[in-house]
Amino acid sequence: xxxxxxxxxxxxxxxxxxxxxxxxxxxxxxxxxxxxxxxxxxxxxxxxxxxxxxxxxxxxxxxxxxxxxxxxxxxxxxxxxxxxxxxxxxxxxxxxxxxxxxxxxxxxxxxxxxxxxxxxxxxxxxxxxxxxxxxxxxxxxxxxxxxxxxxxxxxxxxxxxxxxxxxxxxxxxxxxxxxxxxxxxxxxxxxxxxxxxxxxxxxxxxxxxxxxxxxxxxxx
Length: 220
Known about the structure:
Helices cover about 65% and strands about 0% of the residues.
């Protein structure tokens, strides 16, 4: 599996993305933001590099226009990438690395789907089995468990793009969304809205929840 922090702009026609290209690109884009802290270099890319072209293209797709326009506007407003990267890294650590203590927001599905509220539970093992069953390995530098939000979003994107056994891959994709995203994203988003002092990751969580719900309604 690709490093979920890397958004591949080559996978999408930047001017006329197909529905599947746009959808998988949105999931991979969201995964990249949740995977790790943004750097000044990556922020510059989102403001004026190839990643910006991806944002611009997705903002033209009706289903994603509102979400991508918000994201593009928020990033464009960051006048000092170096300082913005430091501030966002602080927010990321506060929320997702536990620095915020009781205000931390776990990005692991296991915490929300098991009574023990602990990581590395059955949910993580189930997702690991599904990912390995496709011959994939998650080898990003962060070594996150399989039930990390970024890993799940990246896996959904991969399933969307898989060409072999297309019907089977789409069935697995919908199962992953129903079982391992819809089931806990509302609680995750609610906590992020309460705890995020910067507003960026809370907005990102709200976008993710809205787009996943939209995805489910279209599938139904």
